[in-house]
Here is the input.
Amino acid sequence: MNFMNQFRLEGKVAVVTGSGQGIGRGIAWGLADAGCDVVLNARREKDLEETARGVEERGQTALIFAADIRDRSEELADLTIDKFEKIDVWVNNVGGSDEKNTRALTDTPDEIFRSQLELNLTTAFQGSKAAAKRMQNGGCIINITSGAGMRGSPFTGPYAAAKAGMLNMTETLAIELAPEIRVNAVSPGPVVTEAFDKVLGAAGAEEAIAATIPLGFLGTPDDIAHTVVFLSSSAARWITGRNILVAGGRTHRSYQYQRRLEEE
Here is the structure.
């Protein structure tokens, strides 16, 4: 087989949760470019319709499931099987925070902590179960996590705790589901999306964050999509249970080092 064909995904079917905008949309379009039909999920149908158009422009079939995915992964999986008769790739991308206030972990109300675990960790757990029950040998589950789950994260503790749980769950599932199904994680660094602009779109904010990244610039959804496509392909057939940090070299240590340089 031609070497580059190892990266192609013709004939595959992928499910991407949280694919209405941003990183999820980028992942859906990347998988479509590689040859996947894609099942799309998010709460807002209008956003999904735009993502679906992009999938179809790339010559692939898109299926929309507009709903809050919490407690509905089984329904999404059944819908996928009914339409395509299989699931090859499942990307647990839905997440983030409905809570816009930041606070110390000890000041966090119980209901906010539970909500963050449910949105970021429980949905990935449910999605992984639904996918694993229906995947054939060679299937692939990918969890979109965060660098926040790899370190202490002051004032965003519930979100970081959920993402840390996803990393542990990724390793556990990789062992339990091997050798039939591979399970990996991708942790994006600062990526410019609609949500990023809404929170950090103030003048100079992007430049300030870019200055903390060794490669000198912020990421895009395509940067994350490239990694997901690779992990979904046979080119990554010997990789499971791993987390790939896609952040331009930015880690907690590199960030702290940058801060010390600025203070000197």
Q: What stands out?
A: The beta strands are 13-17, 37-42, 62-66, 89-92, 139-144, 181-188, 243-246. Residues 3-202+219-251 form a domain with the Rossmann fold fold (CATH 3.40.50.720). The longest strand covers residues 181-188.
